[in-house]
Amino acid sequence: AIAAVGSGYTLFGGATYVMPGYNSNRAIKLVADANAAPAIYSGVDFAVSPTLTINGLNELSTWYNFTAGSCALGSPRFGITLAGYPNRTIFVYIGPPSNYTGCLQNAWTDTSNLLTAASLVDTSQLPGGNFYDTWGAAQARYSGQQVTAISLVSDNGPTGSQTVLIDNTDVNGTIYTYEPNSKDDCKDGGWQNFTFAPGP
What we know:
Blueprint: E1 5-6, E2 9-13, E3 16-18, E4 27-33, E5 42-46, E6 60-68, E7 77-82, E8 85-93, E9 109-110, E10 120-121, E11 133-134, H1 135-141, E12 147-154, E13 161-171, E14 174-176
Antiparallel strand pairs: 1-2, 2-5, 3-4, 4-13, 5-12, 6-9, 6-13, 7-8, 7-12, 10-11, 13-14
């Protein structure tokens, strides 16, 4: 994507801006197609304070709208990386627990807060973790660990595809609406990020 850096976040893979969003001018479209060659995936990396530890991370949520496919195979999901485990990720899945499938299509849905003490998260990549862990248990087990990265990813592999819009994403109290910061967002080819009118 062109001009894919917003205020406090960066788009990667096939992520693009789209219009309209959820009661707003724009949102982010995440596309995944594991059958494409090469495979297509999309995501958003969010800015993380250097002082944030797992103990202080207590809010993750987003509005989402599937326009093709549905939640499946652990996608889409938030990913949380800790300093002590740089090549491993805590996954926070979007969709109805416990199998995270059956998300509605063509309807905006709020995840609500996915990081309450009782919320289920997948810590199976980390020592002592498991697939159906609670966030409270994860905070206690990895207490004091610095959070180095938070992302929201759609990759729906290894055999699926999906297109999901996201908007009004809450990362520990910071709300990302993905709205343009200024008219400069449309300059230098930035207008090409818009796939609905008045875009290309």
